[in-house]
Amino acid sequence: MLFLSNFKSTVLLWFLVLATCGNETKQVASTTISNEPQIEQAEKEIIVAANRTEAYLPLLKGKKIAIVANQTSVIFKSGGHTHLVDSLLSLDVDIKHVFAPEHGFRGDFDAGEHVNNSTDTKTGLDLISLHGKNRKPSQEQLEGLDLVLFDIQDVGVRFYTYISTMQLVMEACAEKGIPVLVLDRPNPNGHYIDGPTMKAAHTSFLGMTEIPLVYGMTIGEYATMINEEMWLEGDKKADLTVIPLENWTHDMFYSLPIRPSPNLPNDTSINLYPSLGLFEGTNINAGRGTEFQFQRYGASFLDSKVYDFTYTPKPNFGSKYPKEEGKLCYGKDLSKTERMNEVTMDFIIDAYTNSVDKSKYFLTSGFTKHAGSEKLQKQIEDGLTNTEIKATWQTDLEKFKKIRTKYLLY
After folding, report:
1. Does 251 have pLDDT greater than 50?
2. How far is CA 94 from CA 143, 176, 218, in A?
């Protein structure tokens, strides 16, 4: 396992980057947030690993590579950003093809939507979908490669599928004997660990390992955990290199400058996603088909006497067929919710309690895959409170925290 140390001199860092990659050096993401005294603020500019070109370009020289990337795979510079693929091509890095995850290379496909192989119109590169016929690169698709580079912005939630894509890429590369290079990025939900832990009997693409719903690690830290804990199929280990980011810690707020997927449009949606994402395993609409995705919830079968907030989901970017499409939904607006540092069951319990027809509520198979076990649905149906449910998570959370500590970089 190779971890590259940070440069001691900021001046030397900028000189080397400028010399290597023009002006593609400056991270422009906001690192401040109002009314958040409990969240540490960045005194220095956060530098994502993609911007640390001096650290990884030597590893690409003379190599035939593939890149796992989407719209978030960028190098920040003053006034904007350049896509990593475009930057590397301009530096004559030999990119053979791009592997595209859920939502596609440009991030314009719905959640779960089948993505076909295609060609990128801008670069002419072949785009091989990892959310179509196969989710794991085949040995044929890896043929002739010297290295696979992974650079995708994660949000730190177990059922957000980019970590599953990374794990399957690592498995395929371990089987083929091809090194994997991960460029690290901050985790906007990296300041806490919470939620139910996935049980082995229910692992799927929505959760391939026995980790909590919110695991408090960057994608680079998590890649190392997967590798060192021997979680790859067949107990194999990938030849893994992680390029760390700079000037960030887990307690820092980080506002994502690029929407990580179609239905996470802002900081509030990303912060609420761990709790509201569980609605994906129900018939409740969680804001898809509106401009407030994962910032509200509602359904036509919730009690209209209880809720004074209403909305009607309609097809839009990222949601061609939203739940409760065209129906007046009764529910709650959470768009003004203060930043949360935990997973709460209050929203799920509230909606279940106020369902006029509770038989319509759960999509049991889907809810189990999101929750990680059958236990959570039964707890809600049995009337347990948020506090009572969260108490049952603690043993698993403490066990995970001990493992997690070994792999923290920040």
Report:
1. yes
2. 14, 19, 28
